[in-house]
Structures are given as structure tokens and as C-alpha cells.
Amino acid sequence: MTFALRGSLATAALLAALGTAGSASGRDETRGFLAATFGLTASDFAKIDAGEVLARGTAAGDARDIATFGIVRVRITPAFYVERLADITSFKKDDAVLQIGVFGRPPALADVQALSLDEPDMRSLSAGSATAACSCPQRPSTGSAQKLTGLAPTPGNAPTA
Fold this sequence. Notes:
The chain is mainly α. It folds into two domains: 2-86, no CATH class; 94-155, no CATH class. Helix content is 48%, strand content 6%. It contains eight helices and two strands. A two-stranded antiparallel ribbon has the order 1-2. The longest helix has 20 residues, at 2-21. The relative contact order is 0.10.
């Protein structure tokens, strides 16, 4: 569910950016998507149009998770947004984003070698617990989780700068 929800939110953000700058039919399609997917009402759209921030909690796939949905109108062109989004490592640069990177084409182990995992993440990957705790459709096998655990730097084997 987590991956599906993130995909829906990313899609909604992009549609909102593209739909508000385009034709009336594009705007109607965007609003239709947001209404159908997130239950937005005419009152919600009036608030967004007035420049207010709309935020609310939404269903998460696991009782341990929380999910929020937010939308705000930003006055930028779709081209500007897409240009910035194409450089994801700069676009997502923020104190709240601990790590980010881009997979090469084709993906390679070197793409994730700088990845670090904290102790709770390491525990969740060990001994197959990742498959038991994961509610997402992409569940790693026990062997994959153990392989990742062995590859990831830990406090005792982290690379030095």
C-alpha cells in the first residue's frame, strides 16, 4: 500500500501542476482525479483556488502507518516543475531527506554502496523479518533481506570518508 499511495500522491501532485496551467478540460480531468482518488469536494477546490493549503489524514495500508494528503496551488509553469523534478537529488534536498540517489542504467551495486541503514532498519531486514513486517507488494525474500543486511554498512563496518 505504501508504494501505491506514494505513486498516487506523486501523480496527484504532477497532475495538479499540469492541470491547473493547461486547458479547461485538463483542469477538469485533474479535479476529477483528485475528487475520485482523495474525495475532494467543491468546497475543497474553492479553498485551493483561494490559495489555502488543504491537508488531511488518509487511509494507510497498515495500522502502524499514518498517511497525510496535502495540496496547495503554486504559481509555476509545468515546464519549470518538470525541469526541477528531473534533478531529483537537488529537488529533494532537505534536512528531512537523509539519503537520496539515482540508480544508473543499468542499475548496479555501486548505486547503493553509500547507503547507510540505522539499527532498527538493520533489525527489520534480518532473519526474514522484512517479509513478515512488509505490507507492500514488493516483498523481499529471506535470502534477499539477508544479502542486503550483509552488504549494508553498519556502525561497525561503515566506510570512512
